[in-house]
From TrEMBL:
Highest taxon in the source lineage: Bacteria
Gene Ontology BP terms: biotin biosynthetic process
Alphabetical keyword list: Aminotransferase, Pyridoxal phosphate, Transferase
Family the entry assigns: Belongs to the class-III pyridoxal-phosphate-dependent aminotransferase family.
CDD domains recorded: OAT_like
One Pfam family of this chain: Aminotran_3
Name under which the protein is recorded: Aspartate aminotransferase family protein
Protein source organism: Devosia oryzisoli
Cofactor: pyridoxal 5'-phosphate
Amino acid sequence: SVVPNDLGAFWMPFTANRQFKQNPRLFVAAKDMHYTTSDGRQVLDGTAGLWCVNAGHARPKIVEAIANQAAELDYAPAFQMGHPKAFELANRIVDIAPEGLNHVLFTNSGSESVETALKVALAYQKQKGQGSRTRLIGRERGYHGVNFGGISVGGIVTNRKMFGTLLTGVDHMPHTHNLSKNAFSRGLPAHGAELADELERIVTLHDASTIAAVIVEPVAGSTGVLIPPPDYLKRLREITRKHGILLIFDEVITGYGRLGTPFGADYFGVTPDIMVTAKGLTNGVIPMGAVLVSSEIHDAFMTGPEHLIEFFHGYTYSGNPIASAAGLATLETYKEEGLLTRGAELAKVWEDGLHSLRGEPHVIDVRNIGLVGAIELEPIAGQPTKRAFSAFLHAYENGLLIRTTGDIIALSPPLIVSESQIGEIVDGVRNALRSIQ
Ligand code: PMP
């Protein structure tokens, strides 16, 4: 098997690589729900790659669409020129998006979508004569990618502390997650309105007329599947509307069926002004992101039917033909197979399976929503990732891919997962938990 011998060969530096060098793990193939490792083993994908391969791996329709598009029109300039599939895809995204979000800006990743959304929010406020609105509000434990805007509004201090000031005028609301109230919760925890009222406190502190936008993940994924109380996002919507603040949902994980609804906005019944998406848009196969905005925002950028204000933004690969073809084939696959709502059909089986892990060694909380789950382990003082990483290695050696963040095991299988595969995932995690020394 291949043993990496040079850190320079890897794109995830430092700690991750040291762990990796000790235990090299390479995938060489994938099909539907399984990866094949370089030593020829099958590994059940409990994480949809990185929360992105929602329709499963190597789906023929998507593979063919990419190959055909590469042969037919491989690339078209993203400026001054266009091509039909980008427009077609924008329309298909709008078809499944919450009502009112009907314009699309294409990007190439979640991080780029976040930067795009923040710039659109600030430019919109300026266009509306609200140039004093420059402040942005994120949340503690929010994750919005790794670019400068995203780490500024993101709530992971270690991701930003070495970079100095970053974006100025950013505040972070406390996160919704409170373990003592939520431990082993089924369904959503209470206290939503109270938590959202923290935004009112920040507004009062700064004066509403200085705040441009608030950005939140409907359910924080990467920081441990933190599920908000049912009325939390509704209350954020009320407060933002009252004060003329834009509400941005970062749906990079929660978009495209992950919660059993097309978007997290649908799950919680709250429509933001701007919605950030990526990952599942192209089934994780080709990098692509899409930022959706309301007509109100779109119109503020137009000085006439064809004329955009001076707002230079866009990427060489924005809406490129191959990504657009992949996106169209992905959305078609979701539609044909009912995948955008399959998570709701499986939610009970998923919930019962995950909650059967309550009482296993080290487990202090189990959380679930749609086809996402988290098993939180009691950390060892001073070694906050040790137990979860040990479980990860055991699961991997025994044919199951899980993801860990700190001492939280996160699960998000492709939406094509069968009930028996849910059983396999739960058993794999159970055995991994029992194996922790
Ligand atoms: N926002 C959220 C909510 C995410 O989960 C992620 C990626 N995990 C990103 C943004 C960044 O996406 P990307 O890695 O594609 O840049």
